[in-house]
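Appendix B, Record 12. Input sequence as logged:
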Amino acid sequence: MAVSMQVNEQPNILIVDDVSTNLVILSEMVKSTGCIPRPVTSVKQAQTAIDRKIPQLILLDISMPETDGFEFCAMLKADVKTRDIPIIFISALDSVEDKIKGFKLGAVDYIAKPFEKEEVTLRLNTHLKIYKLQQEMEAYNRKLHQVVNEQITRGAEEQKNELSALADILDIQSNVYEKGIDKVSINCRMLAISLQFSPKFDKVIPSTFVDEIEAASQLYDIGMLSVSDDIAYKKTALTDEEWDKIKSHTIIGADYLKKINKDKNKNSYLEMAADIAKYHHENWDGTGYPEGISGEDIPLSARIVAVIDTYMALNSERSYRNAYTKEESLSIMRSEAGKRFDPSIIDIFCKIQKQLQ
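Logged structural output:
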């Protein structure tokens, strides 16, 4: 976590040295830079001072009783609350090895005793300027992050609105749609959320997927608008030509959605909707249409919609049959696990089907 400071706040500098004379000298030098000196004589006092108020910079002696400066520096850099505080070592130990050790521990500078006022003042001002620039950059990045998130949120809402407008068209075409697309949408969301708790799916179903499938599933049968009522509601057996027309709704629907999305910025909702429209009649064992793909080659979104679509269709009256009972529908769904449906999805579906609309 970065150290924060108000724009007009006077910087405070913690000075840690067990020699009182050094504290007096360094405090006066710190004051001359326009900063507030906070002198302490031990690491324990320094920890208490940091708990009260985070300093913008620490002047740290190396040779101290109990806990030395190197050890305290390592402690500060290991703590998320203090790891970003600039640390300048002050010591009579000015060997190359001591300096290298200090820099490896995370110090930004090293000032040797005895102190030269001009040198100390110059180095303090330099590191405070660097600190201020870092704070300004972090503030800018936070603002940029906020703006980008707002744009992403607006973009997601616009994408969802596009799908809602298309779904309204399907509502108007009530003679084409026998199923309640609002319930399909809600049930797909519920099943997707339930799958998140399964070890098999928890890594592949983020919250964005749940939102997308709720919106995208509304358009899963949009291609049926291309099928005439005479074929869609025929009570007798379909001819091969009529059946081909029914099956073509998957490709027609997907192509239509891809065409809408072609000239737009990437719309993840429409992309998922196109996958669902094209593949929701594919079967787990490869006997479905339009491409005859199988298993996990079928998009997960389409596998979820296939389960919900079939279950709702079984529970609904059709022009050619009465509705099945829920018990009969569930028995049929179980018998198709590993054939028509992803068996892992059916396993979760059977556990939550009583909560579905």
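The chain has 14 helices and five strands.
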